[in-house]
Amino acid sequence: MLDASPIRNDWTREQAEAIYNQPFMDLLFQAQTVHRQNFDPNQVQKSKLLSIKTGGCAEDCAYCSQSARNGAQLSASKLIEVERVISEARKAKEGGATRYCMGAAWRSPKDRDMAALEAMVKGVKDLGMETCMTLGMLDDEQVFRLRDSGLDYYNHNIDTSERYYSEIITTRTFADRIDTLNRVREAGIKVCAGGIVGMGEQQMDRIDMMLTLATLEEHPDSVPVNMLIPIPDTPLADVEKLDPIEFVRTVALARILMPKTHVRLSAGRTDMSDEMQAMCFFAGANSIFVGDTLLTADNPEEDKDTALFARLGISAMALGCDGSR
Ligand code: SAM
Ligand code: DTB
Ligand code: SF4
Hints:
Elements: H1 13-21, H2 24-38, E1 43-53, H3 82-94, E2 99-104, H4 114-126, E3 130-134, H5 140-149, E4 153-155, H6 162-168, H7 174-186, E5 190-192, E6 195-197, H8 203-214, E7 222-227, H9 244-257, E8 262-265, H10 274-282, E9 287-290, H11 302-312, E10 315-316
Parallel strand pairs: 1-2, 1-9, 1-10, 2-3, 3-4, 4-5, 6-7, 7-8, 8-9
Helix pairs in contact: 1-8, 1-9, 2-9, 3-4, 4-5, 8-9
The structure holds S-adenosylmethionine, 6-(5-methyl-2-OXO-imidazolidin-4-yl)-hexanoic acid and iron/sulfur cluster.
């Protein structure tokens, strides 16, 4: 087993490969060891998603149900009312969620939307929840306005490795993504950045994606690891299913490279067995999305997650408690 030092931003490709490819039992043991040094292993944070603007997106992300360029039959809607967002957030809080994540199918927000977005952040914060938004690329002024309205986290995924990126998205570059992430971090908003596995990438792409995140100047505060949800009529609809063990290896790599980061077991849980999810928690995942819908796709029903947590003796992480020991 390699030494797991506390926080490093100088991981090399060779080190990340050696961690990822070690025997599975050694990898899980290392990940769980790092996890226990930094978090309560029996606590998992709950986030809730809401699509505040659905469909009709100008980008061509090959995995996405919301791209106007894909064939998926999802009708475009306008930005929803602030009041509705707040009442949905209230319900999510009652269900135990501590973070409310609002997602919009945009390449980037328009200035005319900013006032409503600010009101959403303020309203959700007033409920005593953490706020997160994912709105696409942001310029400096938009970042400052969101920060000043109290936004806690901004989600902006790098999705895959730099090498594979142009196979998945052609309407923006990997560098564009890193640009927005830096802008968000420099403004003092916490960074949530991760990606998707199971998009037909190679093992080296999964490793490089995590390496990019782990060698940013500061590690993201949250890293969502999504398993591709294949959406009919998108270019990735029929991509070959990824070996679940490779998914768990990716989660473990994230935990080991970024010891203090919340690693979120994100999209794709509907198709995972309880045993696989348990293995992901053992590998260091300590956050999930709750509720039966993600943005547009299915997620396990609340009672299924409640039963899973009970079977595993996992409790929901309280707000303001990052689980650190
Ligand atoms: N439009 C914004 C953007 O792209 O940053 C925000 C919303 S976008 C839907 C948020 C993230 O969801 C994507 O970056 C991607 O990582 C993830 N995602 C979208 N569709 C997915 C799918 N079918 N399976 C797994 N993850 C998906
Ligand atoms: C993230 O990494 N996963 C979430 C959140 N960030 C915004 C979104 C998953 C979307 C899954 C497909 C859908 O619901 O359309
Ligand atoms: Fe648009 Fe985001 Fe979907 Fe890409 S992932 S098509 S940017 S909503």
